[in-house]
Design goal:
Blueprint (H helix, E strand, L loop, with lengths): L3 H19 L2 H4 L26 E6 L3 H9 L6 E8 L2 H13 L6 E4 L4 H6 L6 E4 L6 H10 L3 E4 L7 H14 L3 E3 L7 H11 L6 E9 L3 H5 L12 H8 L7 H10 L8 E8 L5 H11 L16 E7 L4 E7 L11 E4 L3 E3 L5 E3 L7 H11 L2 H13 L5 H15 L7 H19 L5 E2 L33
Parallel strand pairs: 1-2, 1-4, 2-3, 4-5, 5-6, 7-10
Antiparallel strand pairs: 7-11, 8-9, 8-14, 9-10, 11-12, 12-13
Helix pairs in contact: 6-7, 7-16, 8-11, 14-15
Bound molecules: nicotinamide-adenine-dinucleotide.
Length: about 475
């Protein structure tokens, strides 16, 4: 990209125009535009922070995802839950009870106000904050936390605007605090197998990758609560009804980027994005509004198109397709396709690997698993499956992060990955608004991608895992 200043100016105007059009709180809640520095203050790729033998953790956002994250953490050695925060006290009560049931020390509670998290961040005894709030709060919380001396782990997507992407990068560099996007799909067993195979050259030179988030979430997005009380905020619906782009790119994209060493040997150059019309969500809002006035405000909003397809071209001339569809009746898929000069891997709808016309036999697949399953899975995989969380990948992600912090190792996903994988959303919005014209993707590493080292697959250290007594309740 030739001129980041012009680029950001353009983005600010584009986002500003979108805000007026949408008139929603989310569209308006953007951070101040800021010109990124031309040179990194410090290269966070491969950075090894000082060891933290016991990682003192704070959690903010204890709804569906955050409460599950707290439940997983006691299985890892060398971790302590120091503080928990949710604007809704019912959520902190639930998590405090969970800690008590597991015979763990009580955590300090911050609840009852949308700003309580700031007080929590002002503590001086927290090493890592785990952020699982609605999307528009991720960056403000992570930036504030890093400024207050803690590493930040952020649910996906880490940022919602280009300004926020740069804020994450610049704050992480300036504070030398890790800014890790919690992209659990990078730890899925098949994705990790293919990462190791790609690293060993089994697919040859990678030419093309495809990833997606295809998951019919209409019932969830329109749900007012019930037992899943937290959705009453309707934050998912707000985003989907006001922003037309690939709103959730990182699940499909993260693993492909790791296989292609994006930010570590290759980089994204530009993208183009196209969206269908919305054929289902406004109709759903109208149908619900007939029975329940609550939904009237969602009728005839500028809904995002049902199916978004975004195409990226990289510096090395590879292509990546990223799809997003959370509103059609179809089976779940993240696609996960890697196509190279020697072979191909494909996960959804049917998992296969091929080195020519025919997919390999079940017997040879077992040989490949044996040879290329990475160490993290051979060591921790069985435990991860038992703890659960998307088949074990959530636990592997937590474990890997804690292991890096405890042993002073580089993290698998740094601030540049967080910014790059998240920036697909604002850039796809811009491309769609401009008849799918191409948009440059900024180099968040500012040249670092040429020498940054790929994600490590060999374990340099290994934090233990432990049995935790679960209460019958
Ligand atoms: N990686 C995955 O597989 C995965 C799966 C589900 C959700 N997520 C992500 O996790 C995040 C949370 O999703 P969820 O399904 O748990 O949503 P949720 O609505 O169930 O939970 C969000 C929680 O944040 C709290 N919150 C809102 N504003 C707050 C504030 N100002 N201060 C403190 N707490 C506040 C809410 O009260 C709620 O408890 C999202 O970013 C989502 O994309 C990731």
């Amino acid at each position: 990209m030739s001129n980041r200043r012009d680029f950001l100016k353009g983005m600010t105007l584009a986002v500003g125009a979108g805000s007026i059009l949408a008139g929603s709180t989310i569209a308006k809640a953007k951070t101040k535009a800021k010109t990124p520095s031309a040179k990194p203050a410090f290269n966070m790729s491969g950075y090894c922070a000082p060891k933290i033998p016991k990682v003192r953790m704070a959690y903010v956002g204890l709804g569906n995802r955050g409460s599950g994250a707290v439940a997983r953490i006691p299985y890892i050695e060398g971790v302590e839950v120091v503080a928990i925060c949710d604007k809704d006290k019912k959520c902190t009560d639930k998590v405090q009870k969970l800690l008590k049931d597991r015979k763990l020390p009580e955590a300090a509670v911050y609840a009852g106000s949308p700003d309580a998290w700031k007080k929590m961040c002002q503590r001086d005894d927290i090493d890592l904050i785990y952020i699982a709030t609605p999307w528009e709060l991720h960056t403000p919380m992570a930036v504030y936390a890093m400024e207050h001396g803690m590493h930040a782990a952020i649910e996906v997507p880490a940022a919602t605007t280009m300004e926020e992407c740069w804020q994450l990068v610049e704050t992480s560099e300036r504070t030398r605090k890790h800014c890790v996007q919690l992209e659990n799909c990078c730890y899925d067993f098949f994705e990790m197998l293919t990462l190791n195979m790609a690293r060993q050259g089994m697919f040859g030179d990678l030419i093309h990758g495809e990833g997606a988030y295809i998951h019919n979430l209409i019932p969830l997005k329109f749900s007012k609560g019930g037992h899943k009380r937290a959705y009453a905020d309707m934050w998912r619906l707000e985003h989907n009804s006001t922003r037309n782009g690939n709103l959730y790119p990182t699940h499909g994209l993260g693993p492909i980027c790791q296989c292609m060493d994006i930010n570590r040997g290759d980089k994204m150059e530009y993208l183009t994005s196209m969206a269908s019309n919305d054929f289902t969500m406004n109709a759903q809002a109208k149908a619900r509004a007939k029975k329940d006035d609550f939904y009237t405000k969602y009728v005839d909003r500028p809904w995002r198109g049902n199916i978004n397809t975004t195409l990226v071209r990289t510096s090395r001339g590879r292509t990546i397709m990223i799809q997003h569809d959370v509103s059609s009746p179809r089976p779940y898929s993240r696609i996960h396709l890697l196509s190279g000069t020697k072979g191909i891997a494909h996960k959804y709808p049917k998992q296969y690997i091929a080195f020519g016309h025919k997919e390999v036999s079940a017997k040879y697949m077992r040989v490949l698993h044996k040879k290329f399953t990475p160490e993290i899975i051979t060591r921790i995989g069985e435990m991860a499956k038992q703890v659960g969380g998307h088949g074990g990948m959530d636990f592997l992600m937590d474990w890997s992060l804690i292991n890096s912090l405890r042993n002073g190792l580089a993290v698998d996903m740094d601030c540049y990955d967080a910014a790059l994988w998240s920036c697909i959303t604002p850039l796809s919005i811009e491309s769609i608004a401009n008849r799918s014209n191409s948009v440059d993707v900024p180099d968040f590493t500012r040249g670092g991608w040429k020498t940054n080292k790929p994600v490590a697959l060999k374990l340099a250290a290994a934090t233990g895992v432990k049995k935790v007594k679960k209460d019958a309740s």
